[in-house]
Amino acid sequence: MREIVTPPFESIASPARHILQNLHLAISNIAPEKEADFNREFNEFVLEYVDDHKWICEVLVKEKHITLSRKVIEVIWPAALFYFQVYHKQQTLPMGVPFEISSDPVLGPTARLMQWSLETLLGKDPAPWPSDLPAPVPNPAHASDLHVADELTYCAVAFLLHHELAHIRLRHEGESEIDSERDADYLAAAWILDSVVEDDPRFDKRILGIATVFGVFTSFGFYTGYHGGGQHPRSFDRLLNTLDRHVHNPNHQVWWVVVVILSLHASNTGRTIAQPEGGFSSAREAVDAYAELLSREKRRPYI
Fold it and tell me: Of the candidates 28, 222, 259, 265, which lies 20 to 30 Å from 215 by C-alpha distance?
C-alpha cells in the first residue's frame, strides 16, 4: 500500500507548502505514460513530508519509507526560477552581450532569493522565506515565470523521489556508497526519460528538471569546496554522467542551461575557465571545462 504522510499544510508558514501539496502527484505524473508500470512497481511505499528547515531527502530501504522536508523545495524552487530567468534573459540578447543581474528589476529579486536559499542551506539557518521576494503561489498564470519554476521544481523533486525509490528497487541497504548512488541516479533518470525521445518537448522539461537538481548539488560545491566523492559521486560527475546517458546533441538546450548555472556560480566565487581560441565547439564542451576546473580542486570534507 502507498501512503502519503503530511503535516497540516495550513500550519506551514513557508510558501513551499504550495508545492508540497501536489508533490505526491508529480512522482507519477513525471512520466504519465508509465502509470501502469508505476502502479505495479511502486505499489508499496510511504512518502512523508516534514516541515523542517534542514535539507532532508532520504529513504529507509527495508521500511520503504521516504522522507522529504520543505527545505528541499526552499532550495530547488529559487534555483529553478533563477536559472530559468537568467537563461531566458540571455536568449533575448545578442551572444556575448553582458547584463547586470543585481540591478535588473526581474533578476535582482530572484538573485536575492537564491542567495537567501543558499545561505540558509549552507548555514542551516532557519530564517523564513523573505516576504518581499518571489515565492510559489496557488495557481500561477500558465507559462508565467512562477509557473515555469513550479513545473521545473516538480520535475526536479520527482527525480529525487525516484532516486530514493531506485534504492528500494535495487535493495540498497546500509551506508550510501558511490556505486549505489550512481546506480540510483541512472535508474531514476531512465524511468523518467527512456520512454520519450530527445526532440520531444516532454523530454526537454524532464531533463531540465534533472539538470536543476544537479545544478543545485554542484552549486553547493562552489561555495563549500565539497564536491562529494565520499559516499556520493562528485556532484559535477553526477551531472555530466547522468545527462550524457540521455542527451546526445552537444548543443541541446539543457547543456546551455547547465553552462548558465556553472558560469553563474563560477563568476560569483571568482573561478574562471580558459576558453580555447575561437571559443568552445559546443555547450557540452564548455560544461566539460567547468567540470575539469572543479576536478582539480583539493577535496574538502563536508562539515
Answer: 28
Q: How many CB atoms lie under 10 A from the CB of residue 228?
A: 20
Of all helices (H) and strands (E), which one includes residue 49?
strand 45-50
Residue 150 and residue 145: Cα distance in Å, rounded? 9
Q: How much is the average pLDDT of 211-234?
A: 91
DSSP state of 30: T
Task: For residue 294, give the nearest of 208, 223, 206, 202 by alpha carbon.
Answer: 223
Rounded (5°) CA angle 226-232-238: 85
Mean pLDDT calculated for residue range 160-176: 91
Mean pLDDT value across the chain: 94
Could you give the CA distance from residue 118 to residue 134 in angstroms, rounded to a whole number? Answer: 15
pLDDT at 97: 80
pLDDT of residue 125: 73
Q: Are 159 and 209 in contact (CB under 8 A)?
A: yes
Q: Which residue has the cell 512518502?
A: 47
- Report the distance separating Cα 93 and Cα 152, nearest Å: 23
Residue-level pLDDT at 299: 65
pLDDT of 264 above 70: yes
Residue in 302, 29, 299, 84 with CA at minimum distance from that of residue 212 = 84
